[in-house]
Amino acid sequence: MRVIGVLIGSVFAYLTYNVVTLANTRGKVDPSLDFSKPRHPVTAEMAEEVKKLNLKTAKLFKLPDARGKVTNIGGAGPKPQFIYSVKKGCPCSFDAEPLMHALYKHFDGKIEFVAVTDADQKDALKWESDLRVPYSVVSNPKVEVMQEYQFPASVYCHLVDTRGVIVKRWAGYSRSYLAEMNAEMAKLLKQPVRPFDSLYAPEANTSGCSYEGYKPEFVTPN
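User: That's the sequence. What structure does it adopt?
Assistant: Structure tokens below.
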């Protein structure tokens, strides 16, 4: 039993080391973070606040992705679009990223995914390459997109229909949030809901690290 305990502890330490090492290549990580439980639980206030933009029009941004390709963020388009926030050096972003890839592949590219990060172009490309992101990663160091879409922290997500209307928003991720995302995407595509394997996603609704420079009092005029 002692050997098993040592092995489990070693695996946990190895995974934690890798998350911290990867994050440190892009920014600072708070050494006090406890990787054994949610770092940023979604509060009741956050869950309510995130609903305010539901059914609002998502402002169109045209920005180059990490490889220089002009990418539409928001606005009307041929496919529904799922937009989520990534923060440089944020362990929460590393935790959530594989789940976003799995959700993208679950719909065979029928939903356009876009990751928006506060990292510069060079680090955005490194993120895309290191994590093998299968869709556009857009650099937005001045966090204008986050400000407009009211993403105060990483791992905020919203789903936009082909008219450019925000269908639903989430202040983070979890097993239940991923199930909702799966159902809402299937509904937009007018197809049956297929079970989605949420893998290691937490039971508790979990958000990410806050963006420097984000102004919570800022409200975009409609």
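Residues 2-24 form the longest helix (23 residues).
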